Write a sequence for this structure.
């Protein structure tokens, strides 16, 4: 079945690293995504990883994928107050159209 | 232009009203999507249009009626809504609908309140 799970809240100090975790259940997932949503706004794609990759780095963002455990993580280095938002992981499946299955979202709070 | 625009930004309507939400993109994308997002919840897919044809309807009640007049525009017609339909309605577009990678670009949403 299709199910994506995330922890709901994370609080970090400015300048520290943040790690947001996600688990998914469908082994046929092709692409896994991280989206950011600021209050009152739409979703912004931060990064994505193809299911045959283990890691992807993009500036301050590092995505790790453990296919065996169906575990995805997003690490944000040197977290800033502007990183405060809700972070959604999402997957698309191997069949059919580009249907995104979202996790519940992790609210990241960055404090001085 | 990498923007998806949505109008109106906010909408308040009664249960007997008829209103429409509009979405526009000029990126040449051929797939467009409507999502519904309740407070503190993830977006839920409602409809997908691919090459101006409806390809996915996620069992959405008929009081929501999508329309894709051309490749740049997507409308969502609302009629006889219920208070529980109050939510943020997000539009998105991608280069195509299909199995390969397709980044979906999201608009800012229309916040709908049904009284």
């Amino acid at each position: 079945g299709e199910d994506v799970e995330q922890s709901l809240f994370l609080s970090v100090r400015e300048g520290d690293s943040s790690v947001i975790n996600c688990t998914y259940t469908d082994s046929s997932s092709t692409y896994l995504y991280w989206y950011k949503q600021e209050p009152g706004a739409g979703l912004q794609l931060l990064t994505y990883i193809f299911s045959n990759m283990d890691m992807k780095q993009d500036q301050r963002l590092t995505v790790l994928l453990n296919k065996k455990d169906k575990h995805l993580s997003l690490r944000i280095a040197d977290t800033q107050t502007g990183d405060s938002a809700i972070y959604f992981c999402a997957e698309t499946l191997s069949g059919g159209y580009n249907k995104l299955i979202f996790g519940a979202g992790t609210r990241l709070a960055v404090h001085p | 232009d990498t923007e998806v625009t949505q109008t109106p930004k906010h909408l308040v309507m009664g249960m007997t009203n008829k209103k429409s939400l509009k979405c526009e993109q000029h990126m040449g994308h051929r797939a467009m999507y409507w999502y519904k997002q309740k407070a503190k919840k993830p977006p839920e897919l409602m409809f997908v249009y691919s090459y101006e044809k409806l390809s996915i309807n996620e069992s959405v009640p008929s009081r929501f009626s999508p329309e894709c007049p051309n490749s740049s525009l997507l409308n969502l017609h609302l009629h006889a809504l219920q208070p529980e339909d109050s939510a943020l309605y997000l539009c998105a577009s991608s280069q195509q609908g299909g199995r390969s990678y397709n980044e979906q670009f999201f608009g800012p949403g229309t916040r709908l309140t049904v009284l």
Q: What stands out?
A: The mean pLDDT of chain A is 89. Chain A touches chain B through 24 residues (CB under 8 Å). The longest strand of chain A covers residues 43-50.
